[in-house]
Amino acid sequence: MTDSENISAGPEEEDGLLFGCMLDGKGGAELLGWTDVEDQKARSGTLWVHLDRNSPRVKTWLREKSGLTETTVEALLAEETRPRVFRGKRGVVAILRGINTNPGAEPNDLIAFRMWSDGSKVITMRHRRLMTPRDILEQLIGQGNGPANASQLYQRLISRLIERMAGTVSSFDDRLDDLEANLGEAQANETRRKLSGLRQDAVILRRYMSPQREALNNLIAEPPVWLEDRDRLNLRETIDRLLRYIEELDAARERAMVIKDDISNQLAESTNKTLYVLSIISAVFLPLGFLTGLLGINIGGMPGVDNPYAFWIACLIMIAIIIGEVMIFRRLKWL
Fold first, then answer.
1. Is residue 47 a contact partner of residue 22, using CB atoms and an 8 Å limit?
2. Can you give the C-alpha Rg of the chain in angstroms?
């Protein structure tokens, strides 16, 4: 199922509530509205609400009815924050970043994704549209093979967030392959511009992916009691995958530098060849220039002034000099 299908298949937003659902413990879930979310005590199971951070109603609900501490609420609503995981008094907050896979998005565009859970309830928030929550919702509502509890939901959200980075990370190698295939002196400036843009995209991605790995390592080092052993192992695999993506980004940056050096070497070699040809030409005509300058002195006593064949004799002498120079250059292996 495509991303657009996932979006269209999902529930409609209700005043900042992107969707809410109650997990049934068997891989399925029941969709909820604001009224059901606010009356969550009347239901049993794991509650998951996905919210729009910009909605005034969401902000009011978080501060007054969610039961979260003020510190946790401020962390979830913060304008800008780096990836991190920390424990609050009533749950664990994970602030991560995911690749923007929306149509027309730039490859280095990352969207903040915020999660909180106390083992019985999961709250997720986004500032812009992110596909990861919709993927998990599709598993719950459309396929019936989604997470059964808060521990599995927390783990699957993180794992899916990292999995979606695969396409963007692998695209760097594809872009480098295209640049290498079309490498030529005529396109050197354009290729170097594209390489600079590629390296900049890789740097931006790595700047957020590296602290994200540290944040997840902290989560595994001191996991909450409600995080099941199997989910801890899956998170370790996710961290290893994230590390592999970081290494691939580093390799792409180094490969871009190598290609850029190759282009510089090609340009330098071309310049050297041109200068070499010009040097040979200059060496050939240097003695001829000396002779013509000497014979052009407008003073008395110049030989051949009265000889009608003097010009042709001078031309023959210069031709002989050129032939002699070419033979000498060949012997010296300059040609």
1. yes
2. 36
Greater confidence, 106 or 73?
A: 73
What DSSP line would sit under 255-295, residue for residue?
A: HHHHHHHHHHHHHHHHHHHHHHHHHHHHHHHHHHHHHHHHH
Q: What is the DSSP letter of 118?
A: -
Are the beta carbons of 280 and 322 closer than 8 angstroms? no
**3-class DSSP state for residue 305?**
coil
Q: What is the pLDDT of residue 228?
A: 93
Give helix 229-295 / helix 188-221 axis angle, nearest 10°. Answer: 160
Is residue 174 classed as helix, strand or coil in its secondary structure?
A: helix
- Grouping H, G, I as helix, E, B as strand and the rest as coil, residue 168 is helix
What average pLDDT does this structure show over 275-288? 84
What are residue 308's DSSP bridge partners?
A: none
Identify the structural domains of the chain with CATH numbers, from first to last. 3-265 (3.30.460.20), 274-331 (1.20.58.340)
- Cα–Cα distances (Å) from 108 to 60, 67, 128, 160, in that order, read 33, 36, 15, 18
Residue 186: pLDDT over 70: no
pLDDT, one tens digit per residue, over 10-56 is: 566 778 899 999 998 888 998 988 888 877 655 678 899 999 988 89
**What ranges make up the beta strands (E) of the chain?**
17-23, 29-32, 46-52, 84-87, 92-99, 110-117, 121-126
The 10 Å Cβ neighbour count of residue 272 is 10
Residues 6+ apart with CB under 8 A from 29: 21, 22, 23, 48, 137, 140, 141, 146
